[in-house]
Design brief:
By secondary structure, the chain is α+β, with helices and mostly antiparallel strands. Helix content is 32%, strand content 27%. The strands form 4 sheets. It has an 8-stranded mixed β-sheet. It is globular, with a radius of gyration of 22 Å. The structure holds flavin-adenine dinucleotide.
Length: 421
């Protein structure tokens, strides 16, 4: 088979398939699940990813399932505002930052991939288990649901098979399980009256304990309520070990609710949000140490398979989408083969490795922890605690953000419309 074989039909794999189709490269996705379903909860998409999806023709579809985020707000443990900053269009970006249900995003990509590439191009119930090189490409082995094993050949294999990637495991046989740094996230969605302006990404807490919430739907005009995604986070001793990192583990809220019981403020009722969620998922916050390559001959890793990181900076899905566009650009520049994969790796690996490590520091939310440690108490009087530090931190952060927004707005699209390989 000529063209591209993609292991995994998640956000990375489906965006990759759609990008291949756009530039005229044949692509097939092998997805392990027997059926793609709208799994997961809310995610945030950075303007870079939104720009990429708009370029793929999803502007209306995406706008109809998402909410533009207009600020990030870091709030002290007592519910008093600490710092807020505009995001997306409000920050000057030409493209919005959007919050969306992961499942709705995946189903949007899936339906369109089936429509554009044809149903035969998305093969479900097909788990990639290994690969071998051929003279001019790669042979891929996959296990079907009935227990049989099949082989397929392609010019290149892209491992978009997520955190527990089988393709990565073959590339790095000694790597083992993901690394757990001591945090556990409990996640859910529930209705709440609009929090702050109704388009806020809000982080409340300190270094040991945090609560994050953002809207994933417009305010219901009848009830006045809005669907909020929430994440409750507690830190433990990393030596104690935790269960396997799986996005779909359902648990009882009793496991952590007591720690958030008094987090009821007049503008955000944390215990009520937790209690009114139909399902609560548990996720030990895991990542993997950066590796020094993502390419092995005609095989490359993209998305979480390449750079799994803590879900703290709205980067998981965003960077997976950007990866797919950059691989598409490399195919245009170098043809569908090893040279393109190497060019993608050279241009991207260092930046993503840095992001994996930075994500361990909690991004701007680390201000909350730093302040808390200085005050050794709930910081109800921020000005008295460390105004100079906060200002310095925020000034640096603003400078970086402003520079990157200007550069981003001025940059040409990764793939010029109508370009074919
Ligand atoms: C079910 C699920 C729920 C999630 N929920 C959230 C969430 O609520 N919030 C959040 O921030 N992030 C969530 N994530 C993670 C988030 O989607 C990713 O960080 C980001 O979108 C990068 O996507 P990806 O395509 O690289 O990986 P993933 O989204 O993990 O997709 C990987 C895909 O590969 C498939 N796969 C795995 N192994 C194989 C194999 N050997 N052969 C073939 N296919 C394989 C998986 O079934 C999956 O469809 C979730 C991921 C999953 C899989």
């Amino acid at each position: 088979m000529d063209g591209v074989l993609i292991a995994g039909g998640g956000i990375a794999g489906l965006t990759m398939a759609l990008t291949c189709h756009e530039i005229g490269v044949p692509a097939t996705v092998f997805e392990a699940a027997d059926e793609l379903r709208p799994l997961g909860l809310g995610i945030n998409m950075q303007p870079s990813a939104v720009r990429a999806l708009y370029a793929l023709g999803f502007e209306d579809a995406l706008d109809s399932i998402s909410v533009p985020v207009d600020e990030v707000a870091l709030v002290a443990r007592d519910g008093a505002a600490v710092w807020s900053e505009p995001r997306g269009l409000d920050a000057g970006s030409r493209w919005p930052q959007l919050s969306v249900h992961r499942g709705a995003l995946e189903m949007m990509l899936y339906r369109e991939a089936v429509e554009r590439l044809g149903p035969a191009a998305i093969v479900t119930g097909c788990r990639v288990t290994g690969y071998g090189h051929t003279l001019d490409g790669v042979r891929v082995e996959c296990g079907l649901l009935d227990g049989t094993v099949e082989q397929a050949e392609a010019s290149v294999l892209l491992g978009a098979d997520g955190l527990h990637s089988a393709v990565r495991a073959q590339m790095f046989p000694g790597e083992g399980s993901p690394r757990w740094g001591g945090s556990v996230l409990w996640r859910g969605v529930a209705d709440h009256r609009p929090v702050r302006g109704g388009r806020s990404f809000v982080v409340v807490g300190n270094r040991r304990q945090r609560f994050v919430t953002f809207p994933i739907a417009a305010t219901d005009p009848v009830s006045g309520m809005q669907r909020q995604d929430w994440i409750a986070e507690l830190k433990f001793d990393p030596m104690r070990g935790w269960r396997r990192g799986d996005w779909n583990t359902i648990v009882s809220a009793d496991e952590f609710l007591a720690d958030f019981e008094d987090w009821a403020f007049d503008w955000l009722d944390v215990p009520a949000l937790i209690r009114s969620s139909e399902v609560v998922y548990e996720y030990p916050m895991v990542d993997r140490d950066p590796v020094d390559r993502w390419v092995h001959g005609s095989v490359a890793l993209i998305g979480d398979a390449a750079h799994p990181m803590y879900p703290v900076g709205s980067n998981g899905a965003s960077q997976a989408i950007v990866d797919a566009r950059l691989v598409g650009k490399a195919f245009l520049d170098h043809g569908v083969g090893r040279a393109a994969l190497r060019a993608f790796e050279v241009g991207r690996l260092d930046e993503m490795s840095e992001l994996v490590v930075d994500s361990r520091l909690a991004g701007p939310a680390s201000v909350l922890g730093a302040l808390d440690e200085r005050s050794r108490s709930i910081f109800d009087d921020l000005d008295a605690v460390a105004p100079a530090d906060v200002e310095r931190y925020i000034a640096d952060f603003r400078r970086d953000a402003r520079q990157s927004i200007d550069a981003f707005n001025a940059a040409p699209p990764t793939i010029e419309r109508g370009t074919r390989a």
